[in-house]
Amino acid sequence: LVDEVLAVGDLAFRNKALERMHQLAHSGVAVVFVSHSLSQVDRLCSHALYLKKGRFIDYGPTAQVIHRYVGENLAGESGMVHHPGTEAAFLVREVTFRDRAGLAVTRIESGSFVAIRAVIEVMQPLARPLFCFMIEPKGHAVILAYIHQPRSEEARPSLAPGRQVVEAAVERLPFLPGRYDLRLSVAGAIESQLLGKVTHLASLDVLPRPDQYIITNEAGLMELEAAWRFQPDF
Predict the structure, then answer these.
(1) pLDDT reading at 159 higher than 70
(2) Distance between CA 135 and CA 229 in Å, rounded?
(3) How far apart are CA 200 and CA 152, in angstroms?
(4) Which residues pair with 51 in a beta bridge?
(5) Which of 88, 112, 123, 227 has the fewest CB atoms nearer than 10 Å to its CB?
């Protein structure tokens, strides 16, 4: 039973302690981790219990419970949720989806080009950070797609304090029609070091293409391209 002990100590100590708890959990030991640090809970726990003033609120997969917690407690006027500790490294000021012409959009056709453009206020020098946008279906705490920054050092520039623009372009977004939410996670030069996480960044409506065939009684979320071939079986 680990109760807020990671609130003390430097970053190296906290990372070492988290790695040790990971090892214990994977060896079959039950670890109960009590904390207000959502990033640490997210990193360590497979399931989470949400208590408020001693009352049971929710229990389930960690991402699902954190999604409810931040939605009820931490959202600001913009709707964005900077998870605790994130603001020490960066703040997201604005996020928009863009079409190929660079115009801001809130809806696209399934299979279209889309770019994510984020204006970020960097609060302290960030040495080779690793950005990852995540997209989830609206109302479901499940990650449908990860948009990772390349891990090579040359593709991970260091960022100085001040306003920075981060953009990721997807040539063909293969999602079926529906509404999707965007979140962001940023790791440090050592990828186990989580610098910050922001949820509820923006929403995107994906519309059906005129030629798109959708099986309405199936709960699919993504459409994959494939090369089809038919021939007699001799």
Answers:
(1) yes
(2) 32
(3) 28
(4) 56
(5) 227
Residues 36, 51 contacting (CB under 8 angstroms): no
- Cα atoms in the 13 Å half-sphere on the side-chain side of 97: 23
Q: Is residue 68 within a helix (H) or strand (E), and if so which, with residue range?
A: helix 62-73
The pTM for the full model equals 0.67
Neighbours of 103 (CB within 10 A): 9
Beta strand 194-207 with 178-187: parallel, antiparallel or unpaired?
antiparallel
Q: What is the identity of the amino acid at 230? A: F
Please give the structure tokens belonging to residue 12.
């190296």
Residue 54 main-chain phi, psi, to 5 deg? 80, 0
- Is the distance from CB of 213 to CB of 180 less than 8 angstroms? no
Supply the Cα-derived Rg of the chain in whole angstroms.
20
